[in-house]
Amino acid sequence: MADKELSALRRLPSVEELLENPALADAIEQRGRRLVADSSRSVLEKLRRRILAGEPVTPADLEPGRLAALVGEEAAAVYKPTLQPLINATGVVVHTNLGRSVLAEEAIGAVGEVAASYSNLEYNLAAGARGSRHDHITRIITALTGAENALVVNNNAAAVLLALSTFAAGREVIVSRGELIEIGGSFRIPDIMAASSAKLVEVGTTNKTRPADYGKGIGPLTSMLLHVHTSNYKVIGFTAGVGIGELVALGRKHNLMVMDDLGSGALADLPALADEPSVFESLASGADIVTFSGDKLLGGPQAGIVIGRREAVEKMKAHPMARALRVDKMTLAALQATLALYLNPREAVRRIPTLRMLAETAAALKPMAERLAAGLKQAVGAGVGVQLQQSASKVGGGALPLLELDSWVCALSPVSISVDELAARLRATDPPVIGRIHGGRLLLDVRTILPEQLDETIGALQQAVSQG
């Protein structure tokens, strides 16, 4: 180690010396000595790494006032929420990384009401005794779908796990090899099956599976035939598959339970969702259990919805794992309010943001894109080129991977900085704006920008350009 680096390291104060700095007295009083001490260690460790990396550290960097300010900022950062709202200008409607669906105003209001007060979550007001949280959501789901019974857990993977654990633990479940999907976060159907203690039996091939393949796989330990919607990819060309109706007929013949995992789950009748299997079709086929997501294409909060035969769903509710996977009062309130909008299909498309974005035509989006482009040009002048152009949005959320929705974007071409730098600056604005880079330009797709966010988007670009 060079003498210069040794000298710089020796000039670093100890944590105790930092804590004795009068400039930190207020921080210690407000945040507590322990947090400020941890922040001091963090600041000193960052300086130590800079010195060892050979980066210049000046006497001004080690001035007590400067160090105290850094410690204060480090301590304050702990209190700053890391989960924050942002503007989704990617054009991906159900963006998994950006929180998936935006809730309807009715759902937001319902969450606020139950969050701000005690509620009858597990209390039967009529009987004056303990009740079940399932009762708050079962009736509206069964009324909408026609199912005999319903259950809600914390996501669709949990719904699949609970069903497999309830009906197939220690036994065999037959799945087409072409349906062994991987969902977000590297979670795979075989892994979920292993966690449930069910034994996976693969049949068919990646591109072709026939009813006879299932028949050959059925044995004395078989408990279930599982159909999985391959929502996040498509196999095209020389293919063959077994529909849920055929699978139900086979299950009835062999007295086996049949489960249909829809993944996203579509309740709305929209042109954009024409190729997505609907919840109603799955249930009408006779499947014993149907599972799907409460967010994604439904447009509600994150949840896993289970519908099906009364006895089967009741058995799942009684499984010990159901308590570990249950949802809280805020999820129930948001989901109930979202589903209530579906009772009027036209109102659902208008009020639920996800459905509205999926239903919006390019012609309807163009005036909004023109307003955004005009505002952006006025805000940044010659610093960034702004061009209005047609483009294509995506559904996202692992659904309809081949579908493109005609849309309009504002294509940004920065003059004095790179497009990557502009994207980074927009991610640092308040609120952050997330676009997509294509063809050397940053595209802001108006399909996923909420109407009330137009002015904020313009202001964010102005912030980003002014940073230079």
Describe this structure in words.
The structure is a single chain. With 468 residues, this protein is of the alpha/beta class. It has three domains: 3-79, no CATH class; 87-94 and 358-466, Aspartate Aminotransferase, domain 1; 105-351, 3-Layer(aba) Sandwich (Aspartate Aminotransferase, domain 2), CATH 3.40.640. It has 20 helices and 18 strands.
Alpha carbon gap, first and last residue: 37 Å
CATH superfamily of the largest domain: Type I PLP-dependent aspartate aminotransferase-like (Major domain)
CATH topology of the largest domain: Aspartate Aminotransferase, domain 2
Q: Averaged pLDDT, please?
A: 92
Overall number of structural domains: 3
Instruction: Indicate the overall shape.
Output: globular
Main β sheet profile = 7 strands, mixed
Helix content estimate: 40-55%
Brief sketch in words of this structure:
The chain is α/β, with parallel strands linked by helices and 468 residues long.
